Fold this protein.
Amino acid sequence: MECGRDVAGRQRNVRGRDGAGAWDRELYGGLVRLHILHHAATMPIYGLWLIEELRRHGYRIGPGTLYPILHSLEHRGLLRSTVQRDSRAQRRVYVATPKGKRTLVRARARVRELFGEILHEGEG
Ligand SMILES: [Zn+2]
C-alpha cells in the first residue's frame, strides 16, 4: 500500500512522488479532492477506507499522499475530523462541514459545465 511500491508510470496513478506520478497528481488531484469531499458529505469516512475506495476507482494513493490531502481539506474548513475509539484501536474519522457541502454543490455545477463538454466530445 506504500506509494513507493507502485509501478512507475502506471495509468491514473496519483502519488506523492516525482515522475509520472507528479503529473497525474497535478492533472487529477482536484478531482480526487472533490471525490473525497463527495464521500465525506455522504457518510463518515476514514483513511484506509478512502485508499480502498480510490483504488476501486483506479487511483492508487498511499497514506503518504492521502493524509496530507485530508489535513489540508480539514485546515480549509471543508472536513472535520474526530477520533473514534473502540476496545482494540482508534481511527480518525472525517465528515464534510457545511462549508464543505457548499463547496461540493458549487464544484458539482462546475464539473458538470467543464466535463460535460469533454464527455460529450468523447462520445463523438
Ligand atoms: Zn467513490
About this structure: Helices lie at 20-42, 47-56, 63-75, 98-122. The chain has one domain: 3-122.
